[in-house]
Amino acid sequence: MKKTLLLFLSAIAGFNLSAQINMDDSTAQVVGYWSIDDTQSFDVSYEKYRIQNGDTSARDIMKYVVDITIKDSTANSYTIEWFYRDYSSESSNPIVQKLTKLSENLSVLIKTNEYGTILEVINWEEVRDYVQKSTQTLKEELKDMPTGEQIVAQMMATYTTKEAIESNAIKDAQQFYTFHGGAYTLHEEIAAKMQFMNNYGGAPFETDVTLSLDEIDEESSYGIIRMVQEVNSVQLTDATYEYLKKMGTLGNQLPPRNEFPALTNNIWTTTRFHAGSGWTTYTVETKVVEAEGISNIEERVIQIQ
Predict the structure, then answer these.
(1) Buried-most residue among 22, 31, 148, 304 (CB within 10 A)?
(2) In a 3-state reduction of DSSP, which class is residue 176?
(3) Could you state, in chain order, the average pLDDT of each consecutive group of 10 residues for the chain (305 residues)?
């Protein structure tokens, strides 16, 4: 059975908040039952690679630890610190190794509603200034590289404004809290159309979203939810083409629009949550962008220590 996302989100209002899993009607909800100073540490890995003709190349892996602490709690909100530390990388690319260290010891304060849905980044100016300071050294180190200045500029674009930080710089937190604030029924598929951020600066992309609660266990108080997002291929291809045309990246090699290869962007997210506390204990997100048989893949895994 399918429902609209609007009904799914509004259903949380009528849920009994004292029991997040109800085996009588096979339902579950994801709500943060957190107290001030509650802390959990998580291992995070982010892997990026390309597959072409069955061969894997351009593989980069970044790993780090994030300490998540509840700093404040009110009747309708939480203030949560994400503290990033212990970065390491597995890459033969020296630029990737340098970029990996930029967020070492960075503290991001995120505000959620009472259910754990992200509302905003509170200290976005501090985050911006911290990264700007970190990139000054990187900028000097890359000054003799042909693309060094461009790399730094792209990095800083992610942290320039509050909107940019909330859209692009906290993707791990967005993944972590994806299902918070929702009420779900076992094996009931929820389908909706949503908006997906356009990093080229234009209108958001239309995205088909389906999600379902695949498993619940009342005894151990956990549930598993899966979601698939499929970005509108025509809109994505149009935006990519216009961006390449504007930037002149391909010069005279850019083909006419009707000969430009179609792009697809699909994202799979699977999350295991502890219903008794509202903590996400494991989540993996895989993003695959394809064109002409070439797949660019990004995968982020967040796991409780």
Answers:
(1) 31
(2) helix
(3) 41 44 88 95 97 90 97 97 96 78 93 96 96 82 71 79 91 96 94 88 92 93 96 96 84 90 97 94 97 95 98
